[in-house]
Specification:
By secondary structure, the chain is mostly helical. The protein has five helices and no strands. The longest helix has 25 residues.
Amino acid sequence: QIYIQRGLEPELAHEVAVQLSAHDALSAHARDEIGIHENTSAKPLEAAGSSALAFSLGALFPMLAILLSPQGYLTQSVALTGVLSLFGLGALSSYFSGTSMWTGAFRVTLWGIFAMLFASWIGSLFNVHV
């Protein structure tokens, strides 16, 4: 039925299903019925490596701001550096994934700011002050 819905004549669809199932039934059913395909499957090592690199790069810039900023401007410097880093890394991520750099940059920046504000609010519940 899958191949008929894709436009094949019933006889040809039956023949395609028989031949694909005879060659590798599990792969044929996983691909055509469930949508699992080698090209779209998760790559856990690649995802872990890119996450580690992104977190390391994301921490590098605020850390440099901590080390290089005057004491009086430390909070503002780290916050501004963090927001600019989010924007830059969001754009970079979108560039490598082939999507809109502006959309990716704004999405990552807005959610990052939200996460920072939420973490700050949680800290205030426990009287943590920076």
